[in-house]
Amino acid sequence: MGFGELDQKAINTIRLLAVDATFTSNSGHPGAPMGMAPVAHVLWNNFMKFNPKNPKWLNRDRFVLSNGHGCMLQYALLHLFGYDLSLDDLKAFRSVDSKTPGHPEAHDTPGVEVTTGPLGQGVSNAVGLAIAQAHTAATFNKPDFTLVDNYTYCFLGDGCLMEGISSEASSLAGHLQLGNLICVYDDNNITIDGDTNCAFTEDVSKRYEAYGWQVLDIEKGDTDLDAMQKAFEQAKAEKNKPTIINLKTTIGYGSLQQGTHGVHGSPLKKDDIKQLKEKFGFNPEESFVVPKEVSELYGKHASEGAAAEEEWNKLLASYAEKFPKEHADLTRRLKGELPEGWEKALPVYTPADPAVASRKLSETVLSKIIDVVPELLGGSADLTGSNLTRWKQAVDFQPKSNGLGDYSGRYIRYGVREHAMGAIMNGLAAYGTIIPYGGTFLNFVSYAAGAVRLSSLSQIRCIWVATHDSIGLGEDGPTHQPVETLAHLRALPNNMVWRPADGNETSAAYYVAMTSKHTPSVLALSRQNLPQLEGSTIEKAIKGGYVLHEVEKADVTLVSTGSEVCICVDAAKYLKEKHNVNARIVSMPCFEVFDTQSKEYRLSVLPDGIPSLSVEVMSTMGWERYTHEQFGLNRFGASGAYKDVYNKFEFTPEGISKRAVATIDFWKDVPNVRSPLNRAFQQII
Amino acid sequence: MGFGELDQKAINTIRLLAVDATFTSNSGHPGAPMGMAPVAHVLWNNFMKFNPKNPKWLNRDRFVLSNGHGCMLQYALLHLFGYDLSLDDLKAFRSVDSKTPGHPEAHDTPGVEVTTGPLGQGVSNAVGLAIAQAHTAATFNKPDFTLVDNYTYCFLGDGCLMEGISSEASSLAGHLQLGNLICVYDDNNITIDGDTNCAFTEDVSKRYEAYGWQVLDIEKGDTDLDAMQKAFEQAKAEKNKPTIINLKTTIGYGSLQQGTHGVHGSPLKKDDIKQLKEKFGFNPEESFVVPKEVSELYGKHASEGAAAEEEWNKLLASYAEKFPKEHADLTRRLKGELPEGWEKALPVYTPADPAVASRKLSETVLSKIIDVVPELLGGSADLTGSNLTRWKQAVDFQPKSNGLGDYSGRYIRYGVREHAMGAIMNGLAAYGTIIPYGGTFLNFVSYAAGAVRLSSLSQIRCIWVATHDSIGLGEDGPTHQPVETLAHLRALPNNMVWRPADGNETSAAYYVAMTSKHTPSVLALSRQNLPQLEGSTIEKAIKGGYVLHEVEKADVTLVSTGSEVCICVDAAKYLKEKHNVNARIVSMPCFEVFDTQSKEYRLSVLPDGIPSLSVEVMSTMGWERYTHEQFGLNRFGASGAYKDVYNKFEFTPEGISKRAVATIDFWKDVPNVRSPLNRAFQQII
């Protein structure tokens, strides 16, 4: 290849931008950028294909910084290659409302593919991006029309490797034989607690070989650019295995404290920076310097990327002629639009239809829309038969060689790997051609909390099919019965939690989940059968909350979700019969969507003047925003047949009625009972 | 060894009990018990040391069923060996309020060491139990007084191995060279989704070798009892490595559906049971049969265990004479009592003391009590310098060979492995001689949600030192700033969340956390400095909520926690000055403890007649139970210097005052404003 002085200057430019930015913000992590600058230079300038002027070009190579604390490396690269990220943006590193936050955020910064920082997420996102590439290629590429052949590159550190999520994702990536995934492990022997030998002495190479990866080693990761060049070539040449390159580096290379955790999470001292700049041949009096020849070098590569995209656009144009249907499908997907009229496939129910578990109703929705919405890519964390996430004709996403499917398959066998599934879904969605959904028990969405949070933060549309949503799962018992989970997920900003009560509400949940481009959804679905309710429609349910059953001179409003709505219906009858009490019934399948309705509408559902009681078999936390009193389960459940468990905790028409009467009684002395929707001031949302 | 017919009969007895119980309850998992009965027989009858009459004997071998869905295996063994678990208990399998719930629960069933079922937890608990054994041995054993030399045995399945938490825990176990840990992997090739080849094709043996484990293989796991005998002997002989035995088994061995996932999670059919009983030489007309000779065989082993304990008690008695101090310490620990007067070591502050971050206040508490409470065993998930969890003279818990500490060390370097840390703490606490605490950022407690939930469910005292508890962490940004986490953890039953506002409250948090034997705690601690408050005392704070600042003719109550309390103090001054408003201030460091106070006390803190406003820089969810209005952050935070972030979201005296005025205004027309503590009926807790 012939690396020379200019390469070294470019590398040192990256290093010093990271040093200057962390010094200026007096915060951040210079060590990893300084150590990984050489490999970043080789990768970005010699291998990566991208057009900084169009960061969304489909066939760009994806870059993921899984050790996201080293984000000044990524910001420096994005700036130097000409993305919309100025030197002033770098100077504003880690300041409020800058485009350069403390960890990379995909929705903030052009060129950042996924939001990273929480360790292990990025590498798992990268697996998702690689699956998405393989699937998109298998779906759209045609002879002579290789529309999609990009690679996914991922940098990661010791922390990522220690996190269990990376084990889950890496094991799956090996199984799936993702040759398009190339990772670089920054093997610098340093973590926050000091030397890795205090906690992390496993044989990483052997572990990745066990997963079925190609493992390459680079001993002189600070200097041996030729070895890096060769390693990436070798990685790209291996088509049936993901590759991990173990790159021995010196954290904070060049600093007086290099090789210690002193350079991990704190800016360098003034003197140290001075000697460093001198050593690198830079003026120690200047900061944020980009030598002209470095700009030119990287500008040249950027132009090549722009030219490559132009070529690709031509290819796409001729693809449009030869494969108009596929072309239309692809371009529609890239715009983030759903197929016109897709929603007509959503099933509609009447009260005459039989009682069905909402997990089964979800299966029906999926079966109906799966052909209409080809970008749906499903899966389950080894609970397919329980989650009912697989449609009959599904082909598995598998390497051809194992005979169980192929890459055009739209159903992923995630294995018992909830956390990786969540992060992989984030990667799938970030690729741009896929809407992912994944199944597990609601209780085990908690295993994936780290990834779910990042779906919300990075505004990703992915759908959790979270079945067995309560004590209603019965015999498996408290270890599997969520009680705190909905409160947790409802407290998460920009996340929709749906708990549909019947078929129409299940269709509504999917409708809103699918059409919300920037918000993930969790669908909490029952194991047990639920009747089709009188008064439910898709149109009403998509408002998040609505009056299922209105009465004149109402004494109380019963507000409920999911499997408890039908018990409230019976409770209303019981109340009339035994207590001459008039109960309205409100079904509230989704708080977050209800919150976005007009106040007028919301007050028509939960009006002033009538005390209200919520009924849900889990933590009452969060219900106080909507109702005056709450009937729930602020304890763990019990193992037993589901009806026995419901009886034990009095979630019966009698049990609800008793509390409804108490509610009426308690509020009867308060004149003009005010709806809890009335608030003194607006929340910060 | 000479295994014979009686052994086979014992094995088949176990199998059939599992078959009968799942058939009777029409629910449960017969496959794993049938496949693992042979190895269970060899282990329990030939290796395990225990006394069924005293399931809490310290030096018993620990048994953990990580594939907890196979719990009928464990229940059958417990019954057969004479634990307090009757045949009627087995017949009540999976029914409400039985001692035989759908997954093993430690607080329900004598002989169950830890609560398992959520996959991957058990094996990680086992690592904790093994660490606890090694530490207890290093602390209390003396020449000629081997008080503690038990092993920890763990059965696990494919699901456990796929879960990331098992990777984390296993990597650490290898690093720590835990020769006292012996795992048996039920390698049956079957998961819920079918054959493991659809998602799990990694080389498990190689992976565990990479972790530094001894790996043993048994090809004929259904029949080759001699190989099992030999493998356990070999495992016990290896003192410096944990062992995993890869045992090839046939799931549902003997069933017409053996070897398929049809026997994983559903009872066998009647006909199948009939042929099975005939094949095993049992009467097909009878159920729940225990042949007399099997009872006698197992009874003999149980008697040997009882005798072993008797011997041990003699050893302990003579230990008491020779090492009275150590003996007193050990027996005190086993009773679950803290050293008398330990709480005098808790630091007390006055307003004259300087402002200090509560993470630093926590460090001070730990430094003061660490010598007084020798059962405290700390650690951090690679954030020691940030969590401030390590005291100055700490010795690390490390294998002697690496020169970084020894097994008597009381500080664990967990690595970046939050989920494993949580589960390991559960195991440490379950051993009986240790109170564990572990540090990470509050945001990353979510990575461990699965384990935290099981601490709560199984009533385990462990303490999370969860620092960097809000947007107050500043520059790291929204990826690291919790907003939903406290709502999540507060919604979890039997879990205490503390967010202390100053030094006295930090001491109070530790006091209650340490003295609550059956409840875990999460201490949410600030990165930024907090002043010592006028009006705070340990005595007040241990009530969970108290009046920090009372005023006459109060117009409003400001209720807050942690770092926002001192801003409320300033807001109260601002309100008086600018608006002539009288604001009371309530500090509420722990909801759950406050909830346990008398209603009279609670109403004295949050009285009728005064509108209240909560102030906390995170999700407002949950605050509606205590206050009329809520000022919080129902969105993600921002990256920037912490004061800038607080200003951005108006968590300033001005911002609070504005909302306090709005609150007063909004509630002024309501006569006799009722405290939200008044409710129509009691919650189910």
TrEMBL record, chains A, B:
Annotated catalytic residues: E418 (proton donor)
E.C. number(s) listed in UniProt: 2.2.1.1
Binding site for Mg(2+): D158, N188, I190
Pfam name, any one: Transketolase_C_1
All copies of domain Transketolase-like pyrimidine-binding, residue ranges: 356-532
The protein's required cofactors: Mg(2+); Ca(2+); Mn(2+); Co(2+)
Keywords, sorted A to Z: Calcium, Magnesium, Metal-binding, Thiamine pyrophosphate, Transferase
Keyword Ubl conjugation: no
InterPro entries: THDP-binding, Transketo_C/PFOR_II, Transketolase-like_C_2, Transketolase-like_Pyr-bd, Transketolase_bac-like, Transketolase_BS, Transketolase_CS, Transketolase_fam
Reactions listed under catalytic activity: D-sedoheptulose 7-phosphate + D-glyceraldehyde 3-phosphate = aldehydo-D-ribose 5-phosphate + D-xylulose 5-phosphate
Gene3D superfamilies: 3.40.50.920, 3.40.50.970
Record: residues binding thiamine diphosphate: H69, G117, P118, L119, G159, N188, H264, F444
Domain of life per record: Eukaryota
Cofactor annotation remark: Binds 1 Mg(2+) ion per subunit. Can also utilize other divalent metal cations, such as Ca(2+), Mn(2+) and Co(2+). Binds 1 thiamine pyrophosphate per subunit. During the reaction, the substrate forms a covalent intermediate with the cofactor.
Functional summary from the UniProt entry: Catalyzes the transfer of a two-carbon ketol group from a ketose donor to an aldose acceptor, via a covalent intermediate with the cofactor thiamine pyrophosphate.
Listed name of the protein: Transketolase
Species the sequence originates in: Emericellopsis cladophorae
Organism lineage string: Eukaryota, Fungi, Dikarya, Ascomycota, Pezizomycotina
